[in-house]
UniProtKB/TrEMBL annotation:
Record GO terms (molecular function): ATP binding; ATP hydrolysis activity
Part of the whole protein covered: 1 to 238 of 317
Species assigned in the record: Lysobacter arseniciresistens ZS79
UniProt name for this protein: ABC transporter
Keywords: ATP-binding, Nucleotide-binding, Transport
Domain ABC transporter: 1-237
Length: 238
């Protein structure tokens, strides 16, 4: 994915200056990467992800996913990427298997194929034995893994997660990490936004730090953290 000089100004109402959420962000994420976007509240992470997933209109700049300009071709964005939002947003009165199959159906996957994929994804998320339970009875961690499984139903080449572990305990986070590692190892590029440096360090090969709408540092995880340490950079995340 390649983002070039992305800008977003939100309208703040009549006679008020707009809110500059992104002030010229450029970013390159190679295919197969596990990439972390780290930043404090209000840094612009959700805005960036909203634009990449075509939920938010950009003010200027360009976003290409594997060569396709998704700001001109929104259907392509839907085909190429899967999104895991921060909040649990499936109907908890449905069963996991139905949630996945119906989601895939919405994106045009034939039902028989969707059932095959759903089994694969539920197994990978360690939820196969819960396929026919009412999803409101699942634990918090299981619900979050179900959201990851759902996003994978369209076989995206790029999976984007918007602070998927915000406010969840370490045990639940570890379960999600395992699923994400497996997905990445099978070839899907992952971009994860997070407040947790420790999580980014655990999972990701490359990192960008965003603050007040600007990328303040980016590069390979270990080298970047070592450099920031030497420079005495203070990461004021939470
Ligand atoms: P958080 O970690 O709290 O989710 P974030 O890094 O995702 O923060 P954004 O939600 O992208 O940051 O917000 C960036 C800036 O844009 C903030 O100043 C925020 O108040 C502002 N903003 C976000 N959405 C809107 C909106 N719909 N209308 C006006 N301003 C907005």
């Amino acid at each position: 994915m390649s983002i070039h000089d992305l800008r977003k100004t939100y309208d703040a109402g009549p006679r008020k200056p707009g809110i500059e959420a992104l002030k010229g962000v450029s970013l390159d994420v190679a295919e197969g990467d596990f990439f972390a976007l780290l930043g404090p509240n209000g840094a612009g992470k959700s805005t960036l992800i909203g634009i990449v997933s075509s939920l938010v209109n950009l003010s200027s700049g360009s976003v290409r996913i594997f060569g396709t300009d998704i700001t001109r071709d929104r259907d392509a964005a839907m085909r190429l990427m899967g999104l895991v939002p921060q909040e649990i947003n499936f109907n908890t009165f449905e069963q996991p298997l139905d949630i996945l199959v119906n989601y895939a159906g919405f994106y045009g996957v034939p039902r028989e194929e969707a059932i095959v994929r759903a089994e694969e994804e539920l197994r990978r998320a360690q939820l196969w034995d819960k396929a026919r339970m009412m999803s409101r009875t699942l634990s918090g961690g299981m619900k979050r893994r179900l959201m990851i499984a759902r996003a994978m139903m369209t076989r995206p080449r790029l999976l984007i997660l918007d602070e998927p572990t915000a406010g969840v305990d370490i045990e639940i986070r570890r379960g999600m990490w395992q699923t994400l590692r497996e997905i990445n190892a099978a070839g899907t590029t992952i971009i994860l936004t997070t407040h947790y440096l420790e999580e980014a360090e655990h999972l990701c090969r490359n990192l960008a730090i965003i603050d007040r709408g600007t990328i303040v540092a980016s590069g390979p995880m270990k080298a970047l953290l070592a450099r920031l340490d030497v420079e005495g950079f203070v990461l004021d995340i939470d």
